[in-house]
């Protein structure tokens, strides 16, 4: 294998390790680390949750024989930090451990780091290889990069629609015990929807959807992190209907709403509707991904699902019932 192929192989292992922290590290990024000496992995680690050890520290402290670290190559998918936060700086630990070479996927856009980690390593005489599988690393940490570079959450628009493109039938049958709602998606799609909720920081519906459906917006079918529940209540209709686990948002438009969520360090957001809220986000252009759960039944007529403009870089996923 060439040096490039070896670097890419271990960097993909970093990606695998990093993904173990999905849903728990925000507002920090997903980071994995592999330490290799003489062609053998001597330590691995990842950032498991905000406030816990960063990936480099996790890997280095897991190494059962510290002498194996001297002269080894450390692979990590994000530039090692150089500042004191909730945990000590990783670049300093890398230097102190005797690591001989560092291979990195992405530069850290955080102004507290941004090049300083590399500088600290190089000043200590440690060669650094950068930008290995850079595009794949940005995809893994798309929430973090959007938050840092665009100063807003990564936004996912999500809805369910019939096979012929309607969010609700013209005549809404009463299918639930509360007399509301019409289930388009099946149990498997619902499970996937709850899985999505465990991976994102916050979830939003409009006030009309809240009043009509009283959604729980939880990931109750799975073990995992629960998203922060929010109602976009510009007309202040829901003030006495939620407990303190909900956030009532009354910003006048999408940009100001996202600005407030950035201020509150919400790194990602699922927008579940209804139609007016989804249209507001589509009109603003301030979204990054669309996920549509498509049922097998046709309604013929009803409330049309949103039309998504074609846009370069947009991730658009249809989860069909028969998939």
Distinctive features:
elongated, five-stranded mixed β-sheet, 10 helices, 323 residues, single chain, alpha/beta, seven-stranded parallel β-sheet
Question: Can you summarize this structure?
Answer:
By secondary structure, this protein is α/β, with parallel strands linked by helices.
Describe the structure.
This protein has 323 residues and is α/β, with parallel strands linked by helices. It contains ten helices and 14 strands. The strands form three sheets. A seven-stranded parallel beta sheet has the order 10-9-8-11-6-12-14. Helix 3 packs parallel to helix 4. It is elongated. Mean pLDDT is 91; it is low at 174-180.
Separate helix tally = 10
DSSP, total strands: 14
By oligomeric state, this entry counts as single chain
Average predicted local confidence, pLDDT: 91
Radius of gyration: 23 Å
Strand order of the largest sheet: 10-9-8-11-6-12-14
**Main sheet, how many strands, which sense, barrel?**
7 strands, parallel
Query: For the terminal residues, how far apart are their CA atoms?
Result: 38 Å
Name the shape in a single word: elongated
Judged by helices, strands and strand pairing, the structural class is: alpha/beta
Give the fraction of residues assigned to helices. Answer: 25-40%
Report low-confidence residues grouped into runs of 5 or more. Answer: 174-180
Strand content: 15-25%
Give the topology string: H per helix, E per strand.
HEEHEHEHEHHEEHEHEEHEHEEE
